[in-house]
């Protein structure tokens, strides 16, 4: 009787492990599938922070199709309700296949790869952009550039 129960629990435990692994694979697949539309056309900003650790709502990915402004005001293309971000904090411009970033005289500054920027800088793949409590990874797309 004990051997039969042991065998049943063993197979039940193995089944639970397989279901857990399949669930993780499914989540990875869905994440990659949702990113495929963004990655095929335009460069984008990918949030590095854990989304659930921030006290405000923010998206994981922002595409860079044209000139966008980021700040606290709703008039910006990307409005982030972070108290450490200025009303109009930063501008990112896509111009002739090149992407440029410019701080708009923000109070707390914009940091590119750890250095505060005061002028217009050309972004390159893998650059880390930090302002306020958020940090983004710039991902270029060689197809559109």
Automatic annotation (TrEMBL):
Pfam families: FHA (PF00498). Keywords: Membrane, Transmembrane, Transmembrane helix. The keyword RNA-binding does not apply. The chain crosses the membrane at residues 6-29. Coiled coil: none annotated. Residues 68-117 form the FHA domain. InterPro entries: Cell_Proc_Reg/RNA_Proc, FHA_dom, SMAD_FHA_dom_sf. This is FHA domain-containing protein.
């Amino acid at each position: 009787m004990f051997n039969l129960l042991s065998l049943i629990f063993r197979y039940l435990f193995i089944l639970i492990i397989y279901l857990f692994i399949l669930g993780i694979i499914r989540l990875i697949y869905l994440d990659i599938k949702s990113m495929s539309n963004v990655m095929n056309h335009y460069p984008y900003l990918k949030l590095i922070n854990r989304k659930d650790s921030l006290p405000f709502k923010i998206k994981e990915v922002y595409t860079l199709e044209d000139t966008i402004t980021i700040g606290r005001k709703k008039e910006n293309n990307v409005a982030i309700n972070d108290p450490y971000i200025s009303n109009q904090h930063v501008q990112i411009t896509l111009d002739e296949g090149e992407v440029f970033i410019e701080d708009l005289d923000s109070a707390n500054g914009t940091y590119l790869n750890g250095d505060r920027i005061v002028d217009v800088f050309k972004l390159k793949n893998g650059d880390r952009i930090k302002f306020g409590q958020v940090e983004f990874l710039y991902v270029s797309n060689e197809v559109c550039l």
